[in-house]
User: Fold this.
Amino acid sequence: MSQQYDFLTKQVFTKEDVVEILNVLRSENGCPWDRAQTHQTLRETAIEEAYELSDAIAKNDLEHIQEELGDVLMQVYHHIGIAQDKGEFSETDVYNRLCQKLITRHTHVFGDVKANTGEEALAVWNANKQKEHHIQSLAQYLDDVPVSMNPLLRAQKVQNRAHKGGVAVYENLQEKIQEKLTQFDGCVAQQDFDQTGGDLLFLVLALLKKNHVNADVSLADAIERFIQKVK
Assistant:
């Protein structure tokens, strides 16, 4: 048996084994699919794996949480391997960036800032993040929310940041929703349906956020309830 395949007889594995296996898969005699992957081609896979982990957590399925954590970890080391092959960055670079962020964002632990509650700690984290990202205006703060984020979550995150920035996001929402419904009923052109429908959904998401409802989780639960009713 070749030395590189000694892990075939193993029962207990380590992080080093993960790296070695992925290196074999990306090698000349490895897997054609793995060799063809890039940061870009793995983008959707990373999102899918995160959702599968979220689903396992929601179900409190510990066995699948272990499995999905492994899949997420595989994504991390796959990207690191690709980057190292191209000379873009190293595994150490990733660790450095992570540790630096953990230190600089937690100035209430590693500095002289005070935070006695979870809310205060989160406020410190966000303030440090804005400083690191050179955010100096509300518009920049809103633009900092990733465009590729799930639109439901992105909408609520933008709304919450706007609210903290002084925008009256959560005022008279039920009245605004009713007005938008009436406007929607009067639409004729598809373009008007699309735009008004988006505005309506945005307002509904704000109403949910005001009442501390995570739209993504809430909608997922509603879908499952609907499926169970249909069965």
Summary: DSSP finds twelve helices and no strands in the chain. The two ends are 52 Å apart (CA to CA). The CA atoms of residues 176 and 203 lie 7 Å apart.
